[in-house]
Amino acid sequence: MTIHTSLFEGEHICLAPIETDKDAEIQAKWTESAEFLRLLSTEPAIPASPEAVKKRYEAIEKKMETDRNLFYFTIRLRPDDRLIGFAQIYWIEWAGGYARLQLGIGLPDERGKGYGSEALRLLLRYAFSELNLFRLDAIVGEDNLAAMRLFQKAGFVEEVRQRQALYRDGRRWDLIGLGLLKEEWSASHA
Amino acid sequence: MHDIFRGELVRLSSDNPQTMAEAFSRWNRDSEYTRLLDDEPARLRSVKSVKEWLEKEAASGENMRFFFSIRALADDQLIGFVGLFEIEWNHGNAWVGIGLGERDYWGKGYGTDAMLTILAYAFNELNLYRVTLDVFEYNPRAIRSYEKAGFQIEGRVRKMIHRDGQRSDVLVMGVLRDEWKGRHWRIKT
User: Fold this and answer.
1) Do residue B154 and residue A162 have CB atoms under 8 angstroms apart?
2) B91 and A165 in contact by Cβ < 8 A?
3) ipTM of the complex as predicted
4) Which of A69, A134, A163 to mutate to test the interface with B (most CBs of B within 10 A)?
């Protein structure tokens, strides 16, 4: 068994708080890519200015403070703490013990290097052994093969398939709900 | 022209926040109802707080939600609510939520009729492509009603609900415009 000295540090990346002004500039750049936005969400893709990203950060931090049903992290490369992505545990329902996960790596060059997997491992440990949640889910378009692989590699299984719920470039895709129970996660971490 | 707000047993109506708040506050005292309705912890709410909540919801994004109260045609009694939420116009997708707070109207086809009426509204008025809902596995009456209205089961969120020491699944159900059209195309000329 590995002894974890920190919840927030992986081998190559770490989970860290938002640095409002610096991060907003970088994240605004990511939103200039429609691909990034489409991989991340089903909302209509639209770029965000640094000012708009800053407002979102402020809303996120306020929500973390008041509603206590959201944990948001930036993903940074070690050792120089360069921002490469974000990850969040959101829509937490404490009574039922479940929440939803989302994570994104901003630039194409930084994808496919295992940073997302590493961040997901940290996020799962945080959700299951710090927040003590019972189950997690993630929603992924069937056109997002990298995300499907990422979550399945971490133990998530397909639970729901909303038929033809995505409509992009003249084609309809299913929207897939993936789920992971704490007992399944624990079994693979014993 | 056919009245799109009218079904066989019910009509979709719009009531003042005060009327709705009084009904919601009363229905919330029935914990069986609230535990069938959603996964939030059952809680009691004053008429005033429900009214403020309804007004806040109504003010937030007119194009993102279409909310109705349900009235029985026979006696004009206010029996529940139904609404389309989280509308994604770019994909033509929406979630539907329905609740019949008046127990005397359970199991008699009112819910199915209201669902058929709002589906016709979703497909014929809003021109949506699909409608989604979720329902708890311990609510077979609702599952049966949704199947009658044209929904099919699209998956099972395992052990999501935790009540009375038991874990239960949540079923996700969906209906597409094209498959619904063949069965329930409610246009009368």
Assistant:
1) yes
2) yes
3) 0.91
4) A163
pLDDT of residue B10: 97
- The candidate with the shortest Cα–Cα distance to A85, out of A107, A118, A54, A52, is A107
B176 CA to chain A: closest CA distance, Å? 8
- With DSSP H G I counted as helix, E B as strand and the rest as coil, what are the percentages for chain B, rounded to 5? 40, 30, 30
pLDDT digits (tens, 9 = 90+) for B28-74: 999 999 999 999 999 999 999 999 999 998 888 777 789 999 999 99
Provide the mean pLDDT of chain B: 93
Q: Domain ranges in chain A? A: 8-188
Evaluate whether B172 touches B152 at the Cβ level (below 8 Å): no
Instruction: With CA atoms as reference, report the closest residue to A176 among A157, A150, A155, A153.
Output: A157
Give CATH for domain A8-188: 3.40.630.30
pTM: 0.93
Token code pair at residue B71: 């009235």
Q: Which residues of A touch B156 (CB under 8 A)?
A: 159-160
The span from the CA of B168 to the CA of A189, in Å, is: 25
Residue B146 and residue B173 in contact, taking contact as beta carbons nearer than 8 Å: yes
- A152 touching B, CB under 8 A? no
| Chain A interface disruption, residue of B39, B159, B171, most A CBs within 10 A | B159
